[in-house]
Description:
The protein is of the alpha/beta class. Helix content is 53%, strand content 13%. The protein has helices at residues 16-27, 58-68, 91-94, 112-118, 134-146, 159-169, 171-186, 191-211, 214-217, 221-224, 227-240, 242-262, 267-277; strands at 8-12, 31-35, 51-54, 77-80, 99-106, 127-132, 150-153. The longest helix is centred in the C-terminal third of the chain and has 21 residues, at 191-211. The radius of gyration is 24 Å and the shape is elongated.
Amino acid sequence: MTSIKPRNIVVIGQGKVGQSLGNLFKLRGHTLTELNREYKEHFVKVAGADIVLICVNDDVIEEVCQILASELKAGAIVAHCSGALDSSVLVSAQQSDCFVASCHPLNTFPNLEASLTKFASTDHTSYLYAEGDREALEELLPMFEDTGFITQEIESAAKPLYHAACVFACNYLTSLMDMSIETARIAGLDEKQFWKSLQPLIQSTLNNIANGDTAAALSGPIARGDFQTVKKHLNVLEQESKSLTSNYASLGIRALEIAQRNGELKEDELSKLKKILGKPN
């Protein structure tokens, strides 16, 4: 990694993201001041900061910036770590002659211990999506790259859709696994053992997507046009859980759309699957 000039960095918010990033900054020789949720009593500490990184809940980012704005030195960089919000919520810092950005570390932070372990070195290989003032990005992107991130720039208007894409891949994957485990439990299987047995299947699926695309990786009854099996699944799920039935059908419709990209299903197979899944022709 290239040598980065040490900066005086203030991190506001001592949750999982704030502490994890703070550790990386300290590891790379930056001077770090960490402020917890009592920051209002200590906000004068931002006066000499080169960089202020706001790592608090989305709904208070704008308020925090407004409180700090009068203490910021001209030319300082203020950034937040929200995935859904863009840098425009930091307009009060811009009005104090500062440069602003949003920098979203694309990884999961399930709990403090796991997060600190994951980001204990620069070998985490996480991506970071950023947008904002050019002056801020020219300073921040090399700094984050120095702490192990692979940086990507994103359009400000794209932030909500970008974050929704992340939620599909992470949060809703967790929801999907939860539904799988619930269905196995209803079938009388041991949850822990079943979850262990799923690991090779899940990893193989991820590998198949990585080696091709989602269409190439799709397998199972819908990919084969096996409408009788899909019908049987829906029948048994209907007896147990309306929620599982509805989710199975919704995901099945998406799987059918993916299968259609491959062009391997016959018209009668498509028609029968659409009817079973409740998808209009």
